[in-house]
Amino acid sequence: MTNSQIAFTLRALRRRSGMSRALNCLIMERQFFEEVRAIVDRVRQFLAAGCISPGRREFLRTSAAVASGLAMTSIIGLYPAAAAAPLKEVRFSEAVHNLGYINLYVGMHAGIFEKNGLDMKVSAAGGDTQTFAAVLGGSADFAIGDATMAQISRENGGPGVVVGTVVQRAHYFGVSKTLKPITDPKDFKGLKIVTSPEPNTNYSVAKRLLEKAGLKVGVDATIVPVNPGTEIAAMLAGQADIAIAYQPSVAAAEAQGAKVVFDFSSYIGPFCNTGIMVLPTTIQKDPQMVQALVTSFEEASRKTYADPAFAKKVAREEFPDLPGEVVDKAIDAELTYLIPAQSVVTKKDQWKNLMDMQVYLGNAKGTIPFDQIIDNSFAEKAVATANELGK
Question: What's the Cα-to-Cα distance from 40 to each of 31, 47, 70, 75, rounded to whole Å?
Answer without folding.
Answer: 14, 11, 11, 16
